[in-house]
Every structure is written in C-alpha cells, then in structure tokens.
Amino acid sequence: MTDIINQLAGLDGTEFVALRERRSDAVTNAQISFQALLEPENPGEFTYAERYAVAAFITGISQADRAAQFYLDLLADEFDDALVATVQGAIAAGTTTGPFRDGNFTVFDASSALGPRLAAAFDFAHLLTFHPKDASPAAVGHLDVAGWSADEIVSLSQLISFLAFQQRVVHGMQVLAGAAPQLVSPQASQEHASQAVANPSWEATENILIPEVVKPAKFVNHSLGWEPWVPAMAKADLTDEHIDALIKPERADMPYFRLLARDPQALKARTLTDLDIFYNTEGGLARAERELAATVASRFNGCEYCASVHQARAKEEGGDAAAIDRLLDEGITVDLGSSLWSAIRDAAVALTATPFAFNDENVTALREAGLDDLSIIDVINSSAFFNWANRLMLTLGEPNVPKRFR
C-alpha cells in the first residue's frame, strides 16, 4: 500500500524511505490514522464527502498545494464537481498564514452551498489549524448546533489534528531531502479578511460541558489535570475494542482517553504512532531531546497541559532542568544553554508556527549541532506530533490545577 506521507513528500525511491522506516510503527500507524480518519470502513454520519472536503480545505488554506490537490482528487473521484468547486471557493476565502490569536475567526455562511454541517466544520477547522489556543466550549457548541454528535466531534478533531501532524512531517521531510516547495504569499488575503470576525457569536449548548476548573495562570513545572468539554465515555460503557484502543488499561480512568475512545480506531493508531516516535531508541535522537521538542511545540501553541507533562519527562531523561524551567517561564526565545538545544528549539518552533517556516537553515543548524538524518527525522516527528496532541487538548477540554498546587 502506498504510504501517503512518502507520496506527498516525494520520497519514493530515495534513501529517506528507509530512514523513516527506522520508526516503523510510527510510519505504519500514521498510515492507519489516515485510513481510520479519511476512509473508515463505517464512516457513519461523518460522511466520506465531509472527510475529504475537510482534508482538502485544511491543506488548501495552509498552502500545502500538493496535499490539497491529493485530497481534492479524492473528493472529485467520488463526488460531483459542484462540491469540489464549493470547497475550492472556501479554500480561496480561508487561505492565510498563521498562527494568530485573540480573534480573527474565519466563518462561513451556513446558508451557502456548504450547508450548515460543512460550514461549521470549516469554521472549526480554520480555528484548529491557525489558532487552537482560541478554542472554547462555544466553538464546540457551534458544531453541536450544526448537527455534529459527540462521536463525530471527536473524529473531526482527530482528523484536523492529524492533518496538522501530516503536513509538518511531509514538509519537514521535503526540506531534509532538499526538495522543499517555495511558499507563495496568499493570493486571497482581501477575500480572507472579509471573512474574519472578532466574535463569531458561538455559544456552548446544553450538550457541552462547562467544568469547574482552576486554570493555570502560567506554564508550570508540576502535573495538571484535564477536564473535557465533550462528554467522555462512561467507564462502564467501554467495550473490548475501546480497551484495546487505550493500549494501557489504566487509561480507562482518564477522561481524556475515554473521550478519544469515541473513535477507537483513530485513538489506537494515534497512540501507537506516539509511542514509536518517543520511545523507539534504536539510534537517532536521545529521549530528552525528543521531549524538549514536544515541550517547545506545546509552549508555542499555548498548551499548558502538554507542556507540564513533557517538561517533566525531559528532565527525567536527563535534560537540563534549569533550561527547561526558563523555557516554561520566559518563552521560546530563551537561552537554552547549548547549540543542540537551541537548534532543536528553533526547528520545533518553525514547524509549529507554520510548517513552511522550517527550512534549510534549520537542517544545517541541526547537522552542525551533531545530529544525523535519523535524529533530524526524530526532531521532525516529535515536533509534528505535538501539533496533533496540542490541538486535541486545547479544543476538546481544558487544564485544571490540582488542589495540592493551588
């Protein structure tokens, strides 16, 4: 079966295919994630047309032209030209560069040819793609009003977040292989600006949870809790398939994993991708440095929960605790104390900001800091994966400071 990431990055026939395969579970399960989210055997009410349309929209507005054409072709193969034209129009209206925060929400007319479900999905996709930190219970309520069920909201969030990962791996590998495309400035900036609103007037609905939490006032170097906005599955309702998807049975006690278990195939593939990226230590980047990339991406995206988890893991693996605390306290521009950590930080920031910011200079800096190509692939994978993880954490719930730390 054709590997989609290799295909989109143009890696077939190069030595980089074999290098990616050094993380074989990650490669295999990224492909399974594509199948689970784009072409599941039983798509339910979240139709193939909607899945292909969302994928084409996200890659199109992100200016990943090769990927956008790939997903538009999938859409055209199965559905009529009118839908393809409608999606192309939405791409033209939504194309921009990110990230940005505090407003500038792009919204689409529910009475247009998109219809209310797809218009709401595109609103949500634009939010998660360019400013996930601005997500809220109201944004999830907007999907609920448009007819998206709890299961479908989880699958849609997984799809959007997976594509953030896929695009970053594709672009990172293109740069590493010396074949990166040139980014063209958006041509529809005026059209996009006319679609932007400071307040989209979305509201949380009765189906959306508003948990009582104490939000962290800053990035912290201790553990945090997390509470969902979309109801998690009850532990008693978990089937053998759900338990299998959790990988670790103790995760049945965690609301986050019981929520993602609403789409068990996507959850299992995502978890196995994660484990190989971070725990496969057959050559390549040291564990502390992989966790550093995860922490940097989380710090940049504003995900306090993920940053709290992975700063601790970086320290446990022997990382410079003082440098990590400076990163949490002062931000991504802080002095990390070594050329290696600075190069990893710069690469993770570039891939997170918009994958096209990652360039030959980042690869050169990583190589000059002593990394071989497998290690650079680990930097790309680790950074890209947390653009998947952060989007789920930021848009399906919120962190909570445990009582012992208040």
From TrEMBL:
GO terms for molecular function: peroxiredoxin activity. InterPro entries: AhpD-like, AhpD_Avi7169, AhpD_core, CHP04029_CMD-like, CMD-like, Uncharacterised_peroxidase-rel. Keywords: Oxidoreductase, Peroxidase. Residues 264-344 form the Carboxymuconolactone decarboxylase-like domain. The keyword Signal does not apply. PANTHER family: CARBOXYMUCONOLACTONE DECARBOXYLASE-LIKE DOMAIN-CONTAINING PROTEIN (PTHR35446:SF2), SI:CH211-175M2.5 (PTHR35446). This is Alkylhydroperoxidase. It comes from Corynebacterium stationis.
